[in-house]
Structures are given as structure tokens and as C-alpha cells.
Amino acid sequence: MLTLSSVSTPELAVASACAVLAAVATLGARVVSGGSWAPSPGWARWLVALPVAIVADTGRIFGLALAQLAHGRRREPGDIRPVPIGDRGDDAPAAAWRALSTLCVTSTPGSFVVDARPDDGKLLVHTLVDGAPSIAKVVSR
After folding, report:
1. Residue 107: enclosing H or E segment and its boundaries?
2. Which of 5, 56, 120, 122 is exposed most, by the fewest CB atoms within 10 A?
3. pTM greater than 0.70 (yes/no)
């Protein structure tokens, strides 16, 4: 809806109906799959750190791009490293922790999760730029 230059009532009605159907289907899929987990209070600290990390990473990426342009050279920035997140296994709380950790880390422009490993409780993260605040450090336990 945000990409439309104007929104008509029929378009808004169809989009709303689709959103309701998707929400109902999601709840049904959660029940059928047996997925169940309650939010952890520790996740709230991510919500505080995430906007700051997004702004910081954006600035660092623009700085990296400007430095590359100014020096006229192209280097491959970045690093792939494991980030310990603590929860191991495939139970619902561990899977939820991995999923939300992955979402948080990938939400920043400077990093993304390549792999989530339930056997050792680590995310394999590719970082383009590094520095504080780092959301990968916030989600690690």
C-alpha cells in the first residue's frame, strides 16, 4: 500500500481482508506445527539497542563506501564469524531465541545471519562493518 500514489477504498478493503486471512492462517499454522513459546523479558533490551545499531551501521557503511570511493580501490570488506547466542537444541524456546536473534541481527544494514546452528547455539554472522553498538553482541549470551 505504501508504494501506491493513491489508495482507494476497494484497494484498502482487499488489503485489510488479506491481512486478516494471513493472520488467521499464521495462527492455524502455529497450532498445527505445535510451536509455542512465550516472550522472554531479555528480548526487550534488543528493542532498545536495535534502532541505535541500525543508525550506527548505516553511518559506518556510508563511511566505508566514501573511503572506498576516495581511495579508488575496491577491497572486500567484511568478516564471517560465529556469535554465541546460548540456546541449543530444537525445543520451542531455543528455536524462538534463534529466530528472533536472526531477525534482529539481519535487521541492521551492517550484518546478516548466514546460518543458525542449533547444535552449538551459535549464529554464523557476516559483518560488513564492525563497531559499537553491535546488535550481534547484544543478542549474544
Report:
1. helix 92-107
2. 5
3. no
